[in-house]
Amino acid sequence: MVVVMEERATESQIEQVVARLVEMGMDVHRSTGVTRTVLGAVGQGQPDAGLIEMLDGVHEVLRISEPYKLASRTFKPDDTTVTIGEVRIGGDEVIVMAGPCSAENESQVRSAAAAVRRAGAKIFRGGAFKPRSSPYSFQGLGEEGLRLLRDASNAENMKLVSEVMDISQIEVIDKYCDIFQVGARNMQNFTLLRELGHVRKPVLLKRGISATIEEWLLSAEYVLSGGNTEVILCERGIRTFETATRNTLDLSAIPFVKKLSHLPIVVDPSHATGRRDKVAPMARAAVAAGADGLLIEVHCDPDHALSDGAQSMFPSQFDRLMAELRIIAPAIGRSICLEPVARRGWGS
Amino acid sequence: MVVVMEERATESQIEQVVARLVEMGMDVHRSTGVTRTVLGAVGQGQPDAGLIEMLDGVHEVLRISEPYKLASRTFKPDDTTVTIGEVRIGGDEVIVMAGPCSAENESQVRSAAAAVRRAGAKIFRGGAFKPRSSPYSFQGLGEEGLRLLRDASNAENMKLVSEVMDISQIEVIDKYCDIFQVGARNMQNFTLLRELGHVRKPVLLKRGISATIEEWLLSAEYVLSGGNTEVILCERGIRTFETATRNTLDLSAIPFVKKLSHLPIVVDPSHATGRRDKVAPMARAAVAAGADGLLIEVHCDPDHALSDGAQSMFPSQFDRLMAELRIIAPAIGRSICLEPVARRGWGS
Amino acid sequence: MVVVMEERATESQIEQVVARLVEMGMDVHRSTGVTRTVLGAVGQGQPDAGLIEMLDGVHEVLRISEPYKLASRTFKPDDTTVTIGEVRIGGDEVIVMAGPCSAENESQVRSAAAAVRRAGAKIFRGGAFKPRSSPYSFQGLGEEGLRLLRDASNAENMKLVSEVMDISQIEVIDKYCDIFQVGARNMQNFTLLRELGHVRKPVLLKRGISATIEEWLLSAEYVLSGGNTEVILCERGIRTFETATRNTLDLSAIPFVKKLSHLPIVVDPSHATGRRDKVAPMARAAVAAGADGLLIEVHCDPDHALSDGAQSMFPSQFDRLMAELRIIAPAIGRSICLEPVARRGWGS
Amino acid sequence: MVVVMEERATESQIEQVVARLVEMGMDVHRSTGVTRTVLGAVGQGQPDAGLIEMLDGVHEVLRISEPYKLASRTFKPDDTTVTIGEVRIGGDEVIVMAGPCSAENESQVRSAAAAVRRAGAKIFRGGAFKPRSSPYSFQGLGEEGLRLLRDASNAENMKLVSEVMDISQIEVIDKYCDIFQVGARNMQNFTLLRELGHVRKPVLLKRGISATIEEWLLSAEYVLSGGNTEVILCERGIRTFETATRNTLDLSAIPFVKKLSHLPIVVDPSHATGRRDKVAPMARAAVAAGADGLLIEVHCDPDHALSDGAQSMFPSQFDRLMAELRIIAPAIGRSICLEPVARRGWGS
Question: In terms of domains, do D86 and D36 share one?
Fold first, then answer.
């Protein structure tokens, strides 16, 4: 914490501030300039800047950022790579996670899995518990949905990510999935984050729609401090005054996060834009900006999807996007599943 | 839903849109103007506007707002009054809820309760489970804190409101408190809201820092639709680009909510401003704008509070604020606990 | 400027930063803590923080705020009062400026002036040059409008404020008006501000819809640094994600500005809310929060106004608001034109 | 305009709304549904939605967007290409405009021009009149700066773009430049825009930091409606709550603008991010998202630049960026000056 005194601050005011900081357990270093005195305070603990700011003679208190520790690059200079079997997130390959918004029935899940696998996705995504802002909307299939998603992932040799909304769902999701997804609305559900610090599977942590990058990394810290070192950050758009787009995808978060933290970061262009014709441009931009992966909604019949149909791509659009991404990735020294993999199982 | 066709839309495009709306279960009314055709679609369910927006020939889709029902003034034209014993929130009297951020120990809780009661507060506030953005901050006393808060409330003849962060805490909070507070970060924790729809005590629902008024009312709808009709809304500041203030207190939400909904609305100026010298101006403004109550942090020794000290008022500041509010309230035909009430119990 | 070094910064990195700061003409004070080194840099000029931030070993650069000088309370501790004849803005009396959005014709201007004067307004407002976001909207009457506004002000013994949009309009507005209004869109039109630094009449400077308080005070500094010491700040709402209200009136700006600056601050609730039924609650709140005055749109036939009809109050609503404000003002030790003044001239 | 009546609206309320709309010159189409009546109103002029919204029985008024005409794709379905000699903006080639923030002296301008030309830039950028938020900052060299920029552009066979801040500068800028740049702060300086509608050179219109896409297109309309059909839009970041980045570059604006308008759109990643190490990722992302061009600050000695040094790239960084862009552009069927062009003149 750095305390900037007013130009007219008296010696006794300065001494009072120093005394208060020492009382809070801080070491204080004083710089007396021609116009101002500046006090640098360091120590354990997180003293309340507001209390100092209100003392007489104080011009302002500047907080040294980065209250997170384990999530910071200072703590761990090298990139973290999250490994799930043969899939590595945060390495040279840009990993694409794709699938429907919600599991609706077996054939819908199976056809989506086959389509995204064929195009090069390595992780299947799909929801079983849906957080809907209206209590009157479709709320998901629950465990039955998880079972359908798992079966389809197995058939296509993909890993599976699905959203956990509450600590009561951790056990059942753990049974079926490879990655726990924490939605934007739960980014500061600290009870849930703390619990996910104790699971032994990666956590994909979406940024809250009004969360700063610092708050997002602090939420990652909750998981990391519980002992779970595998956190994947996911940018999905922030809320701004612009109403033409659903949310404003903050791609500049990618280079900023890369500088501040060692954790991998992926981007979800489907939720940010809310319209399938805007997903491809934003997916391409995310990869060009350095994202470690993408999370994309794909549905074989999006016009009849039970949720998020408007933002779900047709398989043919997804195929084309993947081809475009294969051209872009080398510009930043990366690759995207160069050979569409042979699928396994289901009907074979 | 109103579908505005492009000026150049062809007859066959229009027919296709109509067919799609009918397939979605809507009744469609068509208005053919000189320049454009406009389609009005009404019906049960909530068709996905995005799907229609992407059809050929569609200029834009205008959504008719108010997907909430029970929370709307259309559903219930008269103001809702939440009654807890002799305290009525939403009536002629402006109700002040005050107390410390967190329960720290018995004497701190007791002195705060005595101080706010003397000045005219009718409801005691205090936290036992604290949602902190850093995992390394003070997290609250838990049930022991609730017990201290309850004892002090009883001693001072006040009602008690305290925050619930997770469904696992509902039972213990129900044992000690009169009102369940849902914090800003949990405004869209639908699992929690749904469960609070089944309790038989009022719920004070804080607005999320980036929640629109419509989303806030939809969250209230989750509680109401579970059968709990006693929801109190609480404005506590929204996140904007301004960094001088912690959050921007949106007082215009008061007249807007009053027009859209029948639910009472109170204001928390402490969290919005984050600085005790800014609390009084905003508290006065809230009452002048028509708020049904206030939620204010008061601490007898805020400089040594374990949390939120900078925004906690000294009892003397709170006394003065209450006196100012007693002048303002009549301007809008209301009162504020005109006679400081005689306290009961504790030492008497 | 305060430079916070990384925990792992080497001695040679620190020395390089010091050298660079000295080269920029700064005096540097070094505090070596257990975990970090912090460098305080003071001096004339405004070195580019970004350049330092990119040097090796630098964790972050904290900028000491308040690059404005003349506008700050440090420079002038006492409140500035702007005096125009017998009207004093920034004193004990809350000054109300009211009138139509635009001058449309003589009878409209005259009737509005009479109505607002009767209720207690001391300054008449009205536009002759209108900044409209669409090139196809009504653009104002120009000089003829100014003449109508001046005649009505004289008839009712009021001062006159009107908007200047461009340096080419300064001369004609100076001929008719007592106060130059700078609109929100021109808050950073530095060419205009610089020129207004040389006029000898007060400038009412509206806050830009996305301007921080610091930027607003810097814009005031442009006027002050030209030699014009009479600047009145006007809060009129900022742009946020909320769409229910037109803009979000930031009333917390009042106590913040009062702390940072000596300049008077008034509030325009008409443009912030955009709806006449929301103007009164926000006007009351502004006075309760400590505003030095109000700027309110009133029209005798708002339903047929050529601009801003929806936000213009009826005279009867304005009368009632003034009565409410007379109750509220004493709560903060102020008054509002206690006796509705006898009007002069025009028909008498 | 579409008027949605309340569910309980009476027949007489509906008739009153219809009468008012007709009085405003609108044709009204009425749809009577089971639960609600919806009125579609079309006609010339732009009736004030707020006035209708306040009538009894009205639930809400939905405004049909696109008050701009000439800027819309409805008016002109084909892409506009802005041609300056052999340079075409909006065609298959992505056009890069680069150069220093400000012209400082001859050698600085010449070296920057040579460097960006060598790497493939076709348009030179540089400021002579600087809009600075503080009156105490460097304000530019004025006409002398323009002369230096023009000479360097000629020597390197590049076109020149420079910022115009006020109508008084139009004449001198017209004498030296090929494109008039309108800065973000002037996006709603309607006096300036109107005047630029009469010049016969392209206008590069930056988006205001809090402007919606609709407002931006309306500002373009001001220029277009004056007869100047050559407007180039420039996204340069919007203001959000995030403070880690200077502004949030809204790349989703690219596909949205492309759908709504026929005008070309370029991106300025330098001002959006404010840090040179963030420019390359955002520039790559912009091209991947479909931008028609880039506007980038490059300086041969950015550490000693008189303005914006922190966001100016070194020539070597710019070279590398151009190489990356040449890989990305083909992914969307475009090219970027494939062969670094031979430079002309200056020393040859």
Answer: no
